[in-house]
From TrEMBL:
Domain YhaN AAA, chain residue ranges per copy: 1-63
Molecular-function annotations in GO: ATP binding; ATP hydrolysis activity
Annotated ranges, domain ATPase AAA-type core: 269-337
Domain of life of the source: Bacteria
Pfam families for this protein: AAA_21, AAA_27
Protein name listed in UniProt: AAA family ATPase
Length: 608
């Protein structure tokens, strides 16, 4: 389901917000405190809050207009079918319709079946507080001359006709149920959900109070998905090593571990003692990972998460779970910079009235006005004064960790993956082509940024070619001293640890044995021409060989060989894990790569 657009009337600080057109992916509402952002997001709750609009002219309860939430939603026939079947199963209720629209049962059944078969349907709805949605402009209390009930019976959809009745349900009410099933509102303030009594897992409730039950079900029934959730958490929170759910004093309890290893319960902490930010992130990830086509509404995400954690969480949501619609409120620059493909809406309040306007990200004057009111600079919004364009998503994830390891605490540098990097390595390429691409990429991402650098894999380029490209780019283009990033990651102990961790949910492997296998495989690779000119002397720690070996291809083959083809090497997952492991356990092995990234950032800083 998607919310295509919505309108608030006589609600909270809005007398009439007008129709607000949403993106099907990411939407960010910005504004000062008390501007009306939270009121907007709370209007997406299962029940519209009873908060009528007041102003200096009319504030007396008896004269206030009834709040109204109008929406236009997009949904599929499969979603409608699922909701109807659940209503039939749990409530023995069908779908009713008035006869003026469909005079006969046959016509109504055809309409209903067409809805269920449709891949994409749109419907405009409206609701007051404490009520389900209805058709916009309809009068729910108006008697119906005839009505039809559409129900699932004995393996088929059936229609029965009623006489003069006033049925209370219809398609809008079915969609109200879909709304409550698919829209999740994460409010800024919530109690910690670390413990809950025994129960079967179901839908995560509104305040995530049942999170322990849901995670226990995930841990037991879908361990691979649970481990992926843990992996996401460790990417977001450096202080989190693992997560578990276990019985404790008659309840299920979520435990947080500082290390991957889980030796004894006493070395872990209850989620209730870990702060609301971690709990909120777990709940958001749980919904994103277990639901199909949901709407996630997140209020003031930066109020309970560190700026770096906000960026990491949004990157995970956008990259791994783009099938959801996200509606987020913030006054933080980090959220704006992380949502590069988002629609941005500016919420402003004057006296008793709030307004909403979409921000044109191409209009620098408007951007300055918005960021000025939020108390941040335009370079804050676009995340960086300096941009380093890198080879791909793996470098985009790894280079910030490497920069941090260098001791450089600069927060104004952004690493962004390039597309079609072959354009820069084609021997026929001209300097004009390089700068055309450079100008297009830099202008599209951040109009106010002029300080950039490029990083590329060396691949098979000659030293003369690399020097020539660097010179023609004015010193902006630099190349890894080794063939590619993976050429720095050929360390047996780290590879063994990453492999064991990746397959632990399916099989228990001994790290020492795997390390020995990896060492043997690397030694064979050092004399294998498939990965580059053999090492002389034939050793996998030969520096000249490491500078030219195709580490990416080697790791791909090595993972398959060592695990007997049970684990496929994935660059964006396993390369990142190897970098993190080496920085934590063997930082000296990446010292030259850390120095290179630090130098690259200095190049970006020095460009004018």
């Amino acid at each position: 389901m998607r919310v295509k657009r919505f309108q608030l009337q006589f609600y909270g600080p809005f007398s009439d917000s007008s129709w607000i057109e949403l993106s099907p992916t990411m939407n960010i509402f910005v504004g000062e405190n008390n501007a009306g952002k939270s009121a907007i997001l709370r209007s997406f709750l299962g029940t519209l809050p009873a908060v009528p609009h007041r102003n200096a002219t009319e504030w007396r309860k008896q004269y206030l207009r009834v709040p109204k939430h109008n929406v236009e939603i997009e949904y599929s026939g499969a979603e409608l079918d699922w909701t109807l079947r659940k209503m039939q199963e749990t409530e023995n209720r069908g779908w009713y319709s008035a006869s003026p629209l469909y005079p006969t049962a046959t016509e109504f059944k055809q309409f209903a079946l067409n809805q269920l078969a449709a891949g994409h349907v749109e419907k405009a709805l409206s609701r007051p507080p404490a009520a389900d949605f209805g058709d916009i402009g309809s009068n729910p209390g108006e008697p119906l001359v005839n009505s039809f009930t559409f129900v699932f019976h004995q393996g088929d959809w059936m229609v029965s006709q009623h006489g003069a009745t006033t049925p209370t349900s219809g398609l809008p009410e079915v969609l109200s149920r879909t709304w409550r099933d698919k829209v999740f509102v994460f409010e800024a303030l919530r109690s910690s959900p670390g413990k809950m009594g025994y129960a079967a897992p179901g839908r995560l409730d509104a305040n995530a109070g049942s999170l322990a039950i849901q995670l226990n079900g995930l841990q037991g029934d879908s361990p691979e998905l649970f481990n992926k959730l843990v992996f996401h958490l460790t990417s977001i929170f450096p202080t989190v090593g693992n997560l578990s759910v276990s019985p404790a004093e008659g309840v299920f309890e979520i435990r947080v571990w500082a290390t991957r290893e889980q030796k004894t319960r006493e070395l872990s902490f209850s989620l209730d003692d870990s702060g609301t930010g971690l709990a909120q992130a777990i709940a958001i990830l749980y919904i994103a990972m277990t639901m199909d086509d949901a709407v996630l509404v997140i209020d003031e995400i930066s109020s309970y998460l560190h700026p770096a954690a906000v960026k990491a969480l949004l990157r995970i949501l956008q990259s791994n779970y783009p099938h959801h619609q996200y509606i987020i409120s913030t006054h933080s620059a980090e959220v704006l910079s992380a949502g590069r493909d988002a629609k941005v809406f500016w919420v402003r309040k004057h006296d008793f009235e709030s307004t909403v306007a979409e921000v044109d990200l191409g209009d620098l004057r408007t951007l300055r006005e918005v960021t000025g009111q939020l108390g941040i600079s335009m370079t804050d919004v676009f995340a960086a004064e300096h941009i380093v364009w890198v080879e791909g998503e793996t470098e985009e994830a790894c280079f910030p960790m490497l920069l941090a390891a260098s001791g450089d605490k600069t927060r104004s540098v952004l690493f962004i993956a390039l597309l079609a990097t072959g354009d820069f390595q084609d021997k026929r390429v001209k300097a004009e082509k390089i700068f055309q691409i450079y100008e297009r990429l830099t202008g599209a991402t951040a109009p106010v940024v002029s300080k950039v650098a490029f990083n590329f894999d060396s691949e098979d380029l000659t030293e003369d070619k690399k020097v020539d490209l660097n010179k023609r780019s004015g010193g902006r283009i630099h190349f890894l001293p080794r063939r590619n990033l993976e050429s720095y990651l050929l360390q047996p102990a780290a590879i063994a640890r990453v492999i064991v961790e990746a397959v632990k949910s399916e099989q228990a492997l001994d790290v020492t044995q795997i390390e020995a296998s990896v060492t043997g495989a690397l030694q064979k690779a050092a004399i294998d021409r498939r990965y580059g000119t053999p090492a002389d002397p034939p050793a996998f720690d030969n520096e000249e060989w490491l500078s030219r070996v195709d580490g990416a291809s080697l790791l791909r083959d090595l993972f398959g060989t060592v695990t007997e083809q049970t684990l496929e090497y994935r660059k964006t997952t396993h390369s990142v894990a190897l970098v993190k492991d080496l920085l934590d356990r063997q930082p000296d092995k990446l010292a030259s790569l850390v120095a290179y990234v630090s130098e690259l950032v200095n190049v970006a800083k020095s460009q004018g």
